[in-house]
Amino acid sequence: MRVTQSMLTQSSLRYLSQSYQTLNTLQDQLATGKKISRASQDPVVAMNGMRYRTQVVEVGQFNRNLSEVYNWMDNADATLNEVTHALQRVRELTVQASNDTYEDTQRANIAKEVKQLREHLMGLANTKTNNKYIFNGTNTTNPPLDEKQMDVGFGAVAAELGALPDGEIAPGTTTHELTFNSARYELSEKQGDEYVYRSVSDPNKTLTISGPAGENQSLVHSHTYVNKQGETVTDTTNLQERQVVVSYKGAVSTNTENVNIELMKGVNIPVNINPGNVFSSDFFGDLIQLEKALEDPSATATELTGMLANLDHQINKTVNERAELGARYNRVELIDSRIKEQEVIAKRVLSDNEDADIEKVITDLLTAENIHRAALSSTSRILQPTLMDFLR
Asked: What is the DSSP pairing of strand 232-239 with strand 245-248?
């Protein structure tokens, strides 16, 4: 086959163009630090890069979610710690006041401190973090406690009670509820001027109120149970009006829906506590009941001693809820550790897929440059002068 001058020229220019393309590719890798700058250069690397980058973004979002979770849980735990300390102080004061040697003025002074502690606890119930109420379930924009709707007295609901028809009252009919000794009572029956309230948690406990609504009413507490001998017994106790706390049902929020935050793919962790297990109407009702007993000179040491059981019940509920929160906190820490490992792995895999090996690129670039120079030199020798060079 005859090799012409044009064939040599075209072949040389083609190889030089390929050499320039190689130099351009290596220069792009050196400048960007990436193996490719366009998907067309390597579709497999491009597609894997999109998946790996999505994983890195997800892990980054989970890390930001963890910050929010720690914020909620740390503040909730600190608040429950304050609640426990305040309740323990109330208990200490109750033990002191239950001593018969204490005078009325001394008990009245203790009542003042109990009132301050109760108001402090009400403030804790309305704790806000990042402008969100953390003890109101998913309703984070409204305070869970309205102090003005608590301890309103029977006079505030007299009109409602008087307008009710005789007979059984369906749950949720009335706008108020009663609290007595760590229990909530809701109106279940009315017969003339007699109102029967039944415990929400134990239907065998009732509060019977006799007399015109809001006017010198008599209160009787009944508890029906089976004793050790297997006999059904009903205990009845006459109460004073100060021993029963009347509040509107909306005074303390009953929103117990969990605030869930996703920490791993498909793993949602509730970050809030169940406020009904701590800040409930009976929680504050017990404190108000104790406060009124301390202010009443006729209150006996036996009555005050009996209220220690109420305080112990509320302390135990708070401690149990804090323990449950601590268990979830431990799980969050384990997830945090796992996410940090995933972040390192995801970034390493993304780097292996996309990032260029700079040392290798520099070596390849120097090699390609030498090859290009050699090609230019050899081309200058191969392309011999033509007849036109002699006609000048």
From this structure: unpaired
Q: Where are the domains of the chain?
A: 34-145+252-355, 149-250
Between 3 and 230, name the one with better pLDDT: 230
d(CA 61, CA 262): 9
Please name the helix (run of DSSP H) or strand (run of DSSP E) that holds residue 225, with its range, or none: strand 218-226
- Name every residue whose Cβ is closer than 8 Å to that of residue 114 and which is 6 or more positions away in sequence: 90, 93, 287, 290, 291, 294
Alpha helices of the chain — where are they, by DSSP H?
Answer: 5-32, 43-97, 104-125, 158-163, 281-295, 301-354, 358-382, 387-390
Confidence band for 136, pLDDT divided at 50, 70 and 90: very high
User: Identity (one letter) of the amino acid at 223?
Assistant: H
Can you spell out the DSSP letters for 95-120? HHHTSTT--HHHHHHHHHHHHHHHHH
Give tens-digit pLDDT for 317-366: 999 999 999 999 999 999 999 989 988 888 888 777 777 777 887 887 78
Q: Which residues pair with 219 in a beta bridge?
A: 209, 239
Over residues 99-115, the pLDDT tens digits come to 877 788 888 999 999 99
* Three-state secondary structure of 4-36: CHHHHHHHHHHHHHHHHHHHHHHHHHHHHCECC
Taking the chain, what is the end-to-end CA distance rounded to the nearest angstrom? 31
Q: Which fold has domain 34-145+252-355?
A: f41 fragment of flagellin, N-terminal domain (1.20.1330)
pTM above 0.85, yes or no: no
